[in-house]
Amino acid sequence: MTTVTSAPLSIVDLEPEWSKPDAQKLPSTAGNGYILDLSDMPKQPGPRFGQGLLNHGSDGTKSACYLVVLTTPDEWYGVWAEETRLITVGHSSPNAKLLVSQELCQLGAEHRVTWLDHEAYKEIWLSNPPAQEARRLASIVYEAQENDNSIIDEFRGWGTHINSLLTPAKLGLPGEPELVSTRATVWAGALLHGGRKQSVLQAADLLLEKLNFTREPLNVLADATSSHRLKAATLTPHGDRAFHARDKHDLAPAILRNLWEEFPTQRTLLRSWAVSVVAHRAVPDDDARIAVSALLELSRELHDSSIIDGIAKEVSEHRMPLAVEALTKAALDPALGKYVRERLYRWMLGKPSSAVVDLVTQICGGELAVHQPSIAMTRLARAAVHAQYASRPMVDTFRRLAQINSVEVAKALETWLTEEPAKKHGLVAFLSLAASDEGTQLLLGTTSSSEGRKRFVRAWQQLLQDEESQSAADEQLGAWGVEAETGGLSVQLLVDLMSEVYEPRIYRSGLQRFFARDPDFQDSFWGEVYRRVIIRTHEREKASGE
After folding, report:
1. Measured between alpha carbons, how far is residue 97 from residues 123, 124, 146, 153 in Å?
2. Could you tell me the pTM of the whole model?
3. pLDDT of 403-461, one tens digit each?
4. How far apart are CA 194 and CA 176, in angstroms?
5. Between residues 262 and 539, the one the model is more confident about
6. Do residues 386 and 420 touch, judged by C-beta distance below 8 A?
7. Among 12, 265, 446, 461, fewest CB within 10 Å belongs to which?
8. Calpha distance 458→446 (Å, rounded)
9. pLDDT tens, residue by residue, 261-313
10. In what helix (H) or strand (E) does residue 394 lie, and over which residues does it extend?
């Protein structure tokens, strides 16, 4: 008997690019397994989505193509969800103690598994926390110096300690800051843990302003001194920097998490405040970097994409390099990356500000393009829809893309320019490439095939005809002409291509601008293009008359 062993499936984690879920857009490559996370759908699917999934699954089994959809009861409801009831499998949280034990073994800390039998953990095991919390506990146990109550305190978010910070014993005594002022300093210190003392106080004052807490000069001078405000918030100075208790692991992020969870009705105000600290020019760059890192971690823990949105919209207006740096890192993060990449796509579906368009453009031309080239290109295409022709961020991004992955760029450009007429994102990409040496060589290289040449000619003709792009196209062609005359580009190839672009009479008048401004037009590059246009026209008319 011969045993046939089937090849293991190739598992693909899908990142769909749709305005709402649509089963018809799901891939179905034979021999692949797909995972689709719909636990946080931006928009509910249509009523036939459930049946669409059933049909997709039925067809997929014929070619060993399988799909697993991950979701939650809060998301999976309605007519379409009812259709999938027979193929829906509910999962409860695994045994938390067993999961923590397994995690510790995977981390190489088998010797710490016995710690979990101590009495201090009993209430945790009885509550059987969800898998994500169990894994967090495993991480705390793994990083702990010894098996003491600090592990339990950290797992429970340092609740007792945070309560003592927010309700100081000396409240109301002469010279002591007011309660709201102390709390603002506690929260600012958590956002800027390890930042400059001045930055912490600046952040606290920004929060007080958001709360309409009067901070006129009289109020400032009547309040506690800066050093006393920090002391009242139990912030420890180290040089010119301030820290929350450093012997309590991850206390600062726990304070922020507590703030968001204990005051859920104020989250909009809190997001606005925290993002404004990052964007505020009085906060030095390295301190702003501390704050944005804390916010991204908070966004990951709370699954709060609004924090990411706030960073994109406000920080890009005031600190573009920091916004690009932070969101690029987040887009490639194993835990947060999928959500950030989804936001990059979604921001471009509406009417984004020019700063957000530039932000997405620069992110897509950086490390994201190196590690996730296809994802970078799709989001860049969306950004190009909103960009001005030959905008500097687009030019710089396409130059870098042409340097690091010219094959992916050429492939995308072929897709974008095949449509007749080409849509704006394809034309913006084409003109942006034309504005750099690397991009120019890529574009000229595409003309070696007859179809590539047609796309090249049509793109220039469309750019010259459209009022929005005409000026930028004329300017770029003028630059190409100078490059050709100085030996930077092949005169023979460029004359041949440009004569085809300008041969139709509707475009030929565009050559008159070169004639008007160049007294030596006849001997110039564009004079040669004009002669070639006349010859091509004569030959075509002669051929059609025979």
Report:
1. 11, 9, 19, 17
2. 0.85
3. 999 999 999 999 999 988 999 999 999 999 999 999 999 999 999 999 999 999 999 99
4. 24
5. 262
6. no
7. 265
8. 13
9. 999 999 999 999 999 999 999 999 999 999 999 999 999 999 899 999 999 99
10. helix 392-404
The half-sphere exposure of 84 on its side-chain side, counting CA atoms within 13 A, is: 26
CB atoms within 10 A of CB 376: 27
Nearest to 406 by CA among 382, 428, 437: 437
CA distance 97 to 437: 60
Number of residues written out for the chain? 546
- Which has the closest alpha carbon to 205: 283, 318, 314? 283
Q: Residue 43: which of 18, 26, 14 has the closest Cα?
A: 18
Which residue in the block uniquely carries the two structure tokens 């979604």?
346
Q: What angle do CA 502, 505, 506 make, to 5 degrees?
A: 90
Q: Is the previous residue joined to 47 through a cis bond, with omega within 30 degrees of 0?
A: no
Mark residue 64 as left, alpha or beta (left: phi above 0; alpha: psi -120 to 50; beta: remaining). left
Predicted confidence (pLDDT) at residue 174 exceeds the cutoff of 70: no
Query: How many CB atoms neighbour CB 116 within 10 A?
Result: 20
The residue written with tokens 């109020």 in the block is 219
**Cross-strand partners of 12:** 34
Cα–chain-centroid distance for residue 108?
34
